[in-house]
Amino acid sequence: MDVLKLDDNIMQQRTQNFSGFHLAILDFPETWTVTDLQRFCIMLRYINVQLSTLTHYNIVCLCSLSQQAEIHRVLSSETFCKVEHAFYRKGSVQEDNAPRSVLQQDVGALVCGFWSASGRVSTDDQLTRPRSNFFDIKEPWTLAKTDNGSPVNVHQKPLQLLQDIVDAMSPKQGWVLDACSGTGTGIVACLLGGRNCVAVELEESQAAHVTRRLTSLVFPKE
């Protein structure tokens, strides 16, 4: 399903006790344009206005360093009362006999938008991280692989990063939109953190991987 086609009717049909998205996580697709991001922000605001009484909600866009300034500009123009840059160190990908280039640490970018009905962002709405807004992924992590050994998605993110974002930007039992779910790491972070999650993934092969991943998490083999 295309996340840009998500609307209030779909949410009413497919969820129970939906109270609006407290947080939207968007791993910014390479194929998206500024117009797509604007449409996403409008869709998110429309659903939250139509179906909830939320007084504030947040969005986190994971992106490249080169995309950060443009995404910041778009969020600032889409009624988010505060927009911040943040960064994360991806940490080491744990691979057997992997080349040094695969294991090197790298820095990724985030853009965090805060929407408030009052037009003011309280301390509780902001990142509960040091003012550097830096997420440090210290533990090595593994890439999800297909049966032939290739990565399911070359843009996978560490679980620790998604857990830190969910914990910092949404309340317990809150609703999170994992807009481009990829390998489902955002869903796992929500489950482990006690949040409700709505995930959307357009690629069928990745959606199938997510189904298998969640099945093994909920019903582990003995």
TrEMBL record:
GO biological process, one term: methylation
Signal sequence range: none
Keywords noted in UniProt: Methyltransferase, Transferase
Tree of life domain: Eukaryota
SUPFAM superfamilies with a match to the protein in the record: S-adenosyl-L-methionine-dependent methyltransferases
Gene3D superfamilies: Vaccinia Virus protein VP39 (3.40.50.150)
DNA methylase N-4/N-6 domain location: 128-207
Protein name listed in UniProt: DNA methylase N-4/N-6 domain-containing protein
